[in-house]
Amino acid sequence: MPSSWSLPEPTLAAASEKPKLPPGCAAETKWDDLRALASHGRLGRVRLRSRSGGTLADAFAEIVPAAAHLPQGTVLDRVT
To answer: Segment Disordered: which positions (predicted)?
Structure first.
């Protein structure tokens, strides 16, 4: 992983029969697909990264300009 990457590591799924969730939250099935972190950094740079540290910006080019509309400093962790 590049040393310049300053985002947290993606969260990993864990099996649970009955997840304990705060009121107003929900859980969904985790399918084995693509895990991604998207960020709009404090300097205005948008990054889209895989769980293994590679860039996903070329594969999902439409997400990059959309993520630029997020508040600076925002990080999204998502399974696609």
So the answer is: 1-23
